[in-house]
Specification:
2 copies of one chain form a homodimer. By secondary structure, chain A is mainly β. Chain A contains 4 helices and 13 strands. In chain A, the strands form 3 sheets. A 7-stranded antiparallel β-sheet of chain A has the order 4-3-7-10-11-6-5. In chain A, a hairpin with a 6-residue loop joins strand 8 (100-102) and strand 9. The longest helix of chain A is centred in the N-terminal third of the chain and has 9 residues, at 55-63. The first copy, chain A, is globular, with a radius of gyration of 17 Å. The two termini of chain A are 29 Å apart. Chains A and B meet through strand 1, strand 2, strand 5, strand 6 and helix 2 of A and strand 1, strand 2, strand 5, strand 6 and helix 2 of B.
């Protein structure tokens, strides 16, 4: 039996994207965003949605660039902190001791200590109401060598990414392998 | 040490959204989409990206409506099957034995057996290249009573949602609770 909850932003899983930008003083900033996901395979694009008052939105509009930094479980406190305070008020790299690195392909910083980075060039944005949705073209993906599998691709069990639970307002890790995609479903054919 | 992987659509976590639509013959169809996420808090919106040849895209453009159905772990084979075949070729509800139900607020079917449903009205779409990105306004969220916590909200541990690993081309469950959001980060203030 299903119960109606009304119009709410609850879906699973939602990501914990740490969005990196430079401000007008060249100061690197980061914020946490749970609204977003991959939006196109070719050109490869990722979408994030930001509230209009966000310091990061101003920075992206000026530099036309941002990074998405994927935190490991061990950085859950840093990731949460990045969503609590504004870069207008605090230097989040100084407070956490994490290291900003200038991206290779776009005018935005990434976090050295995080295992997976997407360097993104702003493609377009659309005003949806409380949030502005931004599409960034992924210009490069950078991966810690220690988080790679034998093929050099990301190993989810080494990255240990976070997921955000919007109903429980909590963070979870990734669980057990359930099976291969484009394979398990063949039994219904 | 970071290694550059080039421009790829790899990010964690990505969702397994099962998108429900009616076709021109009133036949309910479902497909799997891993590109998408919440896109606005007010009005509540969710975004999905579909390849241009998708049967679902045609259906959404005609009905201006779709549902997002969140599968539990026990439906991982059904969810995968929904991403393997086209509704042009097979009746996916008949093949899997799942039950289509007409939505209450939009002109699209949902899957009775899945624990969490979003009923969505098409707001806008944008052509990004290989994919069209669609924003749907969430008109209602429906939850299985057995998947609710004591407050009536979704319990992630009862829903047991899937996540898709785009690098490993595999499905994973949700792992352990890491802590409360907007709280863990206070130690850096």
């Amino acid at each position: 039996m299903k119960k109606s909850l009304g119009a709410k932003t609850i879906v699973y899983p939602t990501p914990v994207f740490i969005v990196g930008t430079y401000d007008e003083n060249e100061t690197p900033d980061v914020m946490a965003a749970a609204w977003g996901g991959i939006s196109c395979s070719n050109p490869p694009c990722v979408s994030i949605s930001l509230q209009k008052h966000r310091y990061t939105l101003k920075n992206i509009n000026e530099r036309k660039a941002f990074t998405i930094n994927i935190p490991s479980e061990k950085f859950v406190c840093e990731a949460d902190y990045f969503g609590i305070v504004s870069g207008k008020d605090e230097n989040k790299f100084e407070k956490t001791g994490l290291t900003p690195v200038k991206s290779e392909f776009v005018d935005a910083p990434y976090i050295e200590e995080f295992p997976l980075i997407l360097e993104c060039k702003l493609l377009n944005s659309i005003d949806l109401g409380m949030h502005v949705q931004l599409n960034g073209q992924i210009m490069d993906v950078k991966l810690d060598e220690e988080a790679a599998n034998e093929s050099g691709l990301p190993d989810i069990n080494k990255i240990k990414p976070l997921t955000f639970d919007p109903a429980g307002v909590s963070y979870y890790g990734i669980g057990k392998l359930l099976g291969k995609a484009f394979n398990l479903g063949k039994k219904f054919r």
